[in-house]
Structures are given as structure tokens and as C-alpha cells.
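Quarterly update, task 2.4: uracil-bound model.
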Amino acid sequence: MRVVKPDHPLIAHKLTYLRDKRTDSPTFRRLAEELMTLLAYEATRDVRVEPFAIETPVAPTTGIKLSNPKPLVVPILRAGLGMLEGMVRLLPSAEVGFLGMQRDEATLAITTYANRLPSDLSGRQVYVLDPMLATGGSMSDAIHFLIERGADDITAVCLLAAPEGVARLEKNLAEVSPPVTLVVGAIDEKLNENGYIVPGLGDAGDRLYGLV
Ligand code: PRP
Ligand code: URA
């Protein structure tokens, strides 16, 4: 797995305010979108394109456009929804599929409770969005699910990761094809005994949408 951690002061600045417990939900939602857009710039570096002939007011020339099939963006519900707008702002013609996953707060086991994705993902570039890579269980299950459906180019985008989650993804995806890229805003110190990222930002879903 290729890990990309862009080094940019605006990423660190926005992460600082996301981490701050005084940041309210409306501000948190705006910052999560903005941070996603910055990460999307790196995540889409290898998006598939093809030549495209146009005419400027002065002369004919060749540019590029996104290839078909268009990329698929998959936010992992619920917290991944907070990143969706920030991604499709840069890739407005992408299609969007959904995976609903929840981790049990006590056992940290993952349940998949919703899936609205094309059944055949052959030839598709897929961008999976989830703000938190903690134990790595949710992202690992999501990526295996996408590979089973034929996805042949997968990029995971996370705002924050724990080293334990990155290591688990590396181990679980070592043997799989295609290779996976992880784009992440920061890799924090550790997981605590409750499976939370330290220092982290708390529960991303709750901070985006409130306690349920
Ligand atoms: C959070 C987060 C990730 C998952 C990360 O979701 O958004 O999906 O935990 O943890 P892991 O790496 O240990 O799997 P949660 O299950 O709290 O659901 P939510 O998005 O609905 O709040
Ligand atoms: N999920 C979150 O929302 N936050 C964490 O720190 C870990 C998992």
C-alpha cells in the first residue's frame, strides 16, 4: 500500500480546528469539506484522463478530460458523508455509491448495514472516504468489498489515522491486487484503550451530526 501524507500548512491549520473540542458542528462540517478538497487534489493525481480536442478563440489545441467509466466516490456512512461535498466539488462528474458501516463501541467489530453500489466495478477507479482510520477494521472491510466487485484502482482518503490502523491496512492488503493508495491528512500518536485516535478529534460522526 502506498501512503501519501501531503505536507501543507493549510492541511495542518484546518486539522487543528477540527481537533479543537470547542469547534461547533457547523464549523466542523465546513472544515471537514475544505480539508477533503485539499486532500482530493493529491488523491486525484492519477485520475484517468484522455486527450480532448478543443478550439480556443485563437487556435485549435488538445486538452484532457476524465475518461469513462467515470470515477466512483464511496463515502462510508455516516461520517464519510461529511467529506463527500469536498470531493465532488473537484470531481463533479464522478458517480457516488454508499457503504454504511458501524463499529461496535465495546468490541470494535464492524457491521455493514447498507450498500448502494454498482454490482460490477470492473475497470472503475474508486475513492473511498472515511475521516477516521482507527483500528482500520472499517476501511479494510470496505476495500475488500470493493475488490470483490472488481474495482481495479482504489484510493482511500482519511482525515486522520492511527499508526495501528495504517499497519493493519498494510498487513490486510499486502497480498491483494490492485495495490491501494491511502491519502491521509495526519498520522497521530496511537489508539487508546477504547479504540480512539490520540490526540485525534473525538468521534467524527458525533461531531459532524450530533449524538445518536
Ligand atoms: C467511525 C469512523 C470510521 C470508523 C473507524 O465510524 O467514521 O468509519 O469509526 O474506526 P475503525 O478504523 O476502528 O474501524 P462509526 O462506526 O463510529 O460510525 P459513524 O460514522 O456512523 O459515526
Ligand atoms: N472513530 C472516530 O470517530 N474517532 C476515533 O478516534 C476512532 C474511531
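Highlight for this quarter: The helical segments are 9-19, 25-43, 81-88, 137-148, 163-172, 204-209.
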